[in-house]
């Protein structure tokens, strides 16, 4: 059985849109795409009067080398969000098929599924946010086409052991596409499972330049998968997903100098994660700092609502995650610069209000 047998048959058989840039085949005078022949003001040589390459070759080669995949096992788009959406649209028939997720987890899996009118089967993580593999596999019905695993998990920060991911992959062969979201893997001690793609044709991995590579504003995400899956997804992608300035910014960040700088900052984040985890655990009103392999910490408070307001009044914005299952008392705090992290601790240790939202009586 081919992994494409899991996809929607109408997507497999459709004729994809052929863009003017794809059909250009080189040339010096470009008159085939109804573009302006003049570059805009402030263009600085980017050539923004022309449509970009649908899949910029220099970026693809750089990312393929970075992630350790072949060129035909990679496609890039507007963040991981677009890749999630495209996968669900390619594999799930509206009103018939389903995905499986493990809450609490990244919200876009269910949002994209519901937009497509695909069912969302939830298999909650255990109380310690570990994956219940047996429960997950028991929930996979014939209607399930995609199973999403987020590791390190957002918003808890916990990683899924590689052996458990491979166990799920083995069990899903011929049944569903396994999508492993590794948005935060650069901050983890656990290596990527991308090397398993050649072993499991139904495994796909999501990566992003938004976190460790400091390019959230450029919106560049990658899908790493079997070449047939990549070709299928490219059939339904918009013809020009990545703006030229975003590609240029990514190539600078992914240069040898940029990679050295990014790795240095990843090291700072990891060191700050340890420091902040220990320091936050000593703050009055903090119930627990959850273990994290990402660039954030989920923290339980006696009164999370008051702490949220306290930080906000000090000009510090954190994420209120109390709506997530098993996190009704928690806030998610992204690790900032050392100075920003020190400011968070200073505010939380302020004598005016402790972590329980209780004034100590001082002026």
UniProtKB/TrEMBL annotation:
What domain of life is recorded for the organism? Bacteria
- Pathway connected to this protein: Amino-acid biosynthesis; L-histidine biosynthesis; L-histidine from 5-phospho-alpha-D-ribose 1-diphosphate: step 7/9
Q: Which UniProt keywords apply?
A: Amino-acid biosynthesis, Aminotransferase, Histidine biosynthesis, Pyridoxal phosphate, Transferase
Limits of the Aminotransferase class I/classII large domain: 47-347
- For the modification N6-(pyridoxal phosphate)lysine, which residues carry it? 211
| InterPro entries (UniProt xref) | Aminotrans_II_pyridoxalP_BS, Aminotransferase_I/II_large, HisP_aminotrans, PyrdxlP-dep_Trfase, PyrdxlP-dep_Trfase_major, PyrdxlP-dep_Trfase_small
Q: Name one GO molecular function term.
A: histidinol-phosphate transaminase activity
Q: Which reaction does it catalyse?
A: L-histidinol phosphate + 2-oxoglutarate = 3-(imidazol-4-yl)-2-oxopropyl phosphate + L-glutamate
- Cofactor needs: pyridoxal 5'-phosphate
**EC numbers:** 2.6.1.9
In terms of CDD domains, this protein maps to: AAT_like
> Mind telling me which Pfam families this protein's record contains?
Aminotran_1_2 (PF00155)
How does this chain assemble?
Homodimer.
Q: Which PANTHER family match?
A: HISTIDINOL-PHOSPHATE AMINOTRANSFERASE, HISTIDINOL-PHOSPHATE AMINOTRANSFERASE-RELATED
Q: Name the protein family.
A: Belongs to the class-II pyridoxal-phosphate-dependent aminotransferase family. Histidinol-phosphate aminotransferase subfamily.
Q: What is this protein called?
A: Histidinol-phosphate aminotransferase
The organism of origin for this protein: Dyella mobilis
């Amino acid at each position: 059985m081919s992994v494409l047998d899991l996809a929607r048959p109408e997507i497999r058989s459709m004729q994809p849109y052929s863009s003017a840039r794809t059909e250009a085949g080189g040339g010096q005078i470009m008159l085939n795409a109804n573009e302006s022949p003049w570059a805009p003001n402030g263009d600085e040589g980017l050539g923004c009067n022309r449509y970009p390459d649908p899949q910029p070759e220099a970026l693809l080669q750089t990312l393929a080398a970075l992630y350790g995949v072949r060129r035909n096992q990679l496609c890039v788009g507007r963040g991981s969000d677009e890749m999630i959406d495209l996968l669900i649209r390619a594999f799930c028939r509206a009103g018939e098929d389903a995905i499986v997720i493990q809450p609490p987890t990244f919200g876009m899996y269910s949002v994209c599924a519901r937009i497509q009118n695909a069912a969302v089967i939830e298999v909650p993580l255990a109380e310690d946010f570990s994956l219940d593999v047996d429960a997950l596999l028991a929930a996979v019905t014939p209607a399930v086409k995609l199973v999403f695993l987020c590791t390190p998990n957002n918003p808890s920060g916990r990683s899924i052991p590689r052996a458990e991911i491979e166990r799920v992959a083995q069990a899903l062969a011929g049944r569903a596409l396994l999508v492993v979201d590794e948005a935060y893997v650069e901050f983890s001690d656990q290596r990527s499972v991308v090397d398993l793609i050649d072993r499991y044709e139904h495994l796909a991995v999501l990566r992003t330049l938004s976190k460790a590579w400091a390019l959230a504003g450029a919106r560049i995400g990658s899908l790493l998968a079997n070449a047939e899956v990549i070709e299928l997804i490219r059939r339904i992608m918009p013809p020009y997903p990545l703006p030229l300035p975003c590609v240029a910014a990514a190539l600078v960040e992914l240069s040898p100098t940029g990679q050295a700088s990014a790795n240095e900052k990843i090291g700072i984040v990891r060191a700050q994660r340890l420091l902040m985890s220990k320091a936050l655990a000593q703050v009055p009103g903090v119930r627990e700092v959850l273990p994290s392999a990402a660039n954030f910490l989920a923290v339980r408070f006696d009164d999370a609502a008051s702490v949220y307001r306290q930080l906000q009044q000090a000009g510090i914005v954190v994420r209120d995650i109390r709506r997530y299952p098993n996190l009704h008392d928690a806030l998610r705090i992204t690790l900032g610069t050392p100075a920003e992290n020190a400011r968070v601790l200073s505010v939380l240790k302020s004598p005016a209000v402790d972590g329980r939202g209780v004034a100590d009586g001082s002026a």
